[in-house]
Amino acid sequence: MTDAPTPSPATADLPGWTHVYSGKVRDLYRPDGSADGGADRMLVVASDRVSAFDHVLAPGIPGKGVLLTTLSLWWFDQLAGADGGPAIANHLAASHTLTPGGDDLVSLVPDAVEGRAMIVRSLDMLPIECVVRGYLTGSGWKEYQSSRTVCGIALPGGLNDGDRLPEPIFTPAYKAPMGEHDENISFAQAEELVGAERAAQLRDLSLEIYRRAAATAEAAGLILADTKFEFGSDADGVLTLADEVLTSDSSRYWDAAAWASGTTPAERMASFDKQIVRDWLATHWDQQGTPPELPAEIVERTAAKYRELLEKLTA
Fold first, then answer.
1. Were both Cys, which of 14, 51, 64, 106 would link to 24 (CB 3.0–4.6 Å)?
2. CATH code for 125-268?
3. Which residues form the SAICAR synthetase/ADE2 N-terminal domain (predicted)?
4. Sign of the CA dihedral 22, 201, 192, 148?
């Protein structure tokens, strides 16, 4: 396990903002008094860092922060009603949009992090990671093989790795402190953490977002196999979508044509995320000690997949 990474020297000091926290991939800042005095605002910066197996790896993926931020902003726009569905509240500050205007808050984003930062509203974040699975794969497939369940939810027999589930399922996880594994929990445990009413809201909203996003992905020739969301409450108690959303880091996307025609799991589940990194690490590292440096070829292939996903979805 690793300690929380520190921001790179290029982004540690940003004019108008004070660094308060770094996760595996993102750095968080508050206004220091000169950033328009917005005490209820925060700056979320997506770095080029890449993580796998609870470790931050080296080197990073060039341009990753910009790609993730661009895709998140695009999805926030879709879920705000651009896809024809009802608007879902998100954490973006009111005038922070994908296409900045003359008085847009984007003008407060420091040049050093332009394109990979979002100005957001401060929220009371909920301690639950909201995972939705529409297909059987990953840790879910491993559990299914032994018990015919995924996160304790019973599923029909006869499913294979990569198969579509009869219905998308909500499988929450407890967001563990930095350096520890997130823990899959039951819906009953989620109710204990946030209350029965709020847990039901998280489940229903997560499933709604997944279904809408999966339909959008399908229209672009993609399968949204699974994804995870984070939510917080605003000052009025409104459940609000936060952090990144439906990116290559938080979701599994597959090529729909390859999934339909492939004869092996690898062919069916050709992904647009950091699975390339995970696969290489699994082959070249026993998860003991410091992970090896990623080869240039793996870095380049991963960056290409991130770019390809953005292009396919937003074309």
1. 51
2. 3.30.470.20
3. 20-285
4. negative
